[in-house]
Amino acid sequence: MKKEVEIFDDENSIVINDEHTTNTFDFFPGEKKIKIDVSINDDYHHNYSTIEYKISDDPIELKMRTVELYHEFVGGKDNSIKDGVVLESELRKNKFNNQERIDDLKKEVEWSKVPIFGNPEVNLYILSKHPEIISKDEYRRFLRQSVERINDGIAKVKELVKKDSHGLEIHTGDYGMSIWYPDNESEKKESEAYWDLPKEKRDDSAYGKKMKYVDDFNKSLFDEKSSSYVGISEIEFRSSDEIVEYVQKLLDKKDEPAKKEVEPKTSKIKKIIISLILTFLLSWIVSWFVDINPFLIFVLVQIIAFAQSIVGGWIGKAFDK
C-alpha cells in the first residue's frame, strides 16, 4: 500500500498518510512516550492513544505498552484505556465490545516486544532520539546490519522457493511480497470453489490443502526456532523492498556540519582611513601637553601606536555594522 511519510524533526513529529487514514505521531523522548492520532480520511473519527516505550541496547530491542486509548466520533467519545488500565466496565456497556476485544486490550497495556521493522519510520525514529542509550555510531551500525540481514534473508527465501517441489513462486502485490502457487485460471477456479464450500469442508478441499502447505512453508522460513529459518521475519520479507529503501535513505542522510561563525573583517581601505584619522587626532591632542623634542617625539609615536591598537579595533567594528 502506497504511503507518504513526512518527518518534522523540529517538532519531534511524523505524519503518515495512506489511502485510508492519516496517522500523526508526536514524540516525547524525555518521557519516553508517543501520542498517536489516527483519523479516517473524509470522516470525523479519531483514535487517540498514548504509548510508553523502553529501549534495550544489547541486543537492540523496543518494548511498548498503551497507557491511554479513546475514540472520538460525531456525537460522542469512548474511553477504552486510562492510566494503563482497561476500562472493562465501560466497554461492556457497548454491545459491540465482546470478550475478545477486551482480552486484546488487556494485552496492549502489558509490556511487549515490538518488531522494529513492523513500523520502521516510527520505531527507527524512536531509536535515533536516544543517543544516551544507542550512540549515533551504534545506530548506524544497526541500520547497516539490518540491510545486510534482510538482503541475505531474501536471497535464502528465493533459493528455497526455487527448490520447492510444489512449484511455489514469489509474488509482488499491493501489500508487498508473498509466496503462493502460479497465478492461472485453474488456481482461480479452485479459489472460487473453496469459498463456495461450507466452512467445515474447506480444509479438506484441494485449495484448503494448498493453503495449509503454504502456511507451513512460511513458518519453516520465518520461525526463529525452525531449522530452515532464513534470518528475517515474515513482516521483513513482505516489506523488504520498502524497508531497505527507507533504511538506505537514513544511511545516506548526512549530518549538516556546524557552521563556524566568522567575524566580519574590516577592509584594507577602512583600516588605512582609521589609522590616518587616529594618527592626526592623537598627535594634535598630545601636542597640547608636551614640548616637542626628540625624546618626546619618540614617546608620542609609541603612545599613538598603542592607542591605535585598542581604539582602532573598536572603530573598525563600528564601521562593519
Helix content: 40-55%
Main β sheet profile: 9 strands, antiparallel
Order of helices and strands: EEEEEEEEHHEHHEEHHHHHH
Give the integer mean of the pLDDT values: 85
Low-confidence blocks of residues? 256-266
The domain count comes to: 3
Structural class: alpha+beta
State the shape. Answer: globular
What distance lies between the first and last C-alpha atoms, to the nearest angstrom? 56 Å
* Beta-strand content estimate: 15-25%
Number of helical segments?
Answer: 10
Describe this structure in words.
45% of the residues lie in helices and 24% in strands. The protein is an alpha+beta fold and 321 residues long. It folds into 3 domains: 3-121; 140-252, no CATH class; 268-320, no CATH class. It has 10 helices and 11 strands. Strands 1, 2, 3, 4, 5, 6, 7, 8 and 9 form a 9-stranded antiparallel β-sheet that branches. The protein is globular. α4 packs antiparallel against α8 and α9 (268-287) crosses α10.
